[in-house]
Design a protein that fits this description.
The chain is α/β, with parallel strands linked by helices and about 300 residues long. It is built from nine helices and nine strands.
């Protein structure tokens, strides 16, 4: 029987805390209290990805959620995604206006280049914009050369600015995919915050070799694609899950004397469909009607982190 070499048991990251040096271990119960606008106990952050899905994706290193599925040309899925930018997004804008809710629209560079009017309509309604990578087939991963990944970032920021928006200082990666160097390259490009990591429910400081970032919490588990498409649950169950989360977080905020953040990702081609948008509206209204709840955005989370 052969024994394992000593090198097999040598692991430089074997230490207390997380498996990296971006942030220390910090149980939420030990955090100093934060402050949200108007003394809110529950902040609701809604993020709307505006995505472009190429008709013939390479699928490297994997296919992003929502990418084409059937043999080329997969017009069924392509046109459904296009419906989101043509119809669903405007349905969400109308809903948010009725609720008085300011959302964050995560815009891909290809969307800004192809549909600059949509970007301008989002801005005209008073919503925030962050960058969301070039398109759903330009994924960030450690196999990318540095110049390729930096090119994705710069090209995206340039395209959004060319569409009439302020140059974004926030980022959400396509499919929330990253390589080991992605955060450092984002920081070096002037990005102040990103929302790829789901390690917390409060904003955290995030160290990189390119400068510090703020990691803003963005739940993957209440994402409309995750619940409605991946898990295949009906709309009323998703609404119940959002309500349950708001109940729990509100009670936790009261008990710990520090506010909590509820985050939702809603896609125009998923939640903007006519048979889903009412459930979304009822769900958002149910959260916002709670005592001490209010809609928040990245600037509110950054202030809470720096206070």
């Amino acid at each position: 029987m052969s024994s394992l070499p000593d090198s097999y048991l040598t692991y430089p990251r074997r230490h207390a805390g997380p498996d990296h040096d971006h942030y220390p271990a910090s149980p939420v119960r030990d955090r100093a209290p934060v402050t949200l606008p108007d003394g809110a106990g529950l902040g609701l952050w809604v993020v709307v990805p505006l995505e472009f899905f190429p008709l013939n994706p390479s699928g490297q290193p994997f296919k992003a959620p929502g990418a084409m599925q059937t043999p080329y040309p997969d017009l069924r899925h392509y046109t459904t995604r296009d419906y989101g930018n043509r119809v669903g997004a405007y349905r969400l804008l109308k809903l948010f206006g009725r609720l008085g809710l300011r959302a964050t629209f995560a815009v891909q560079g290809a969307v800004a280049e192809r549909y600059p009017g949509l970007v301008q309509d989002v801005l005209a309604d008073g919503h925030d914009i962050c960058a969301h990578g070039w398109d759903t087939d330009s994924l960030h991963h450690s196999g990318l050369a540095a110049d390729v990944e930096t090119g994705y970032i710069t090209r995206t920021l340039d395209a959004i600015q060319a569409a009439g928006a302020p140059r974004p200082d926030g980022w959400l990666s396509p499919a929330r995919a990253e390589g080991f160097q992605t955060p450092a390259r984002l920081a070096a490009a002037g990005i102040r915050w990103f929302a790829d990591w789901a390690h917390d429910e409060l904003p955290t400081r995030f160290r990189t070799d390119g400068g510090d970032l703020a990691a803003l919490p963005l739940s993957n588990e209440l994402d409309d694609w995750q619940i409605l498409i991946t898990y295949g649950r009906p709309e009323h169950e998703w609404a119940t899950q959002v309500s349950d989360a708001a109940d729990w977080l509100s009670a936790e905020a009261e008990r710990l004397k520090s506010p909590r953040v509820l985050t939702l990702v809603v896609r125009p081609y998923v939640s903007g469909l006519p048979y889903r948008v009412r459930a979304l509206g009822d769900s958002l209204k149910g959260v916002l009607d709670r005592p001490g709840a209010r809609a928040i955005g990245p600037s509110d989370l950054l202030r809470a982190l720096s206070a």
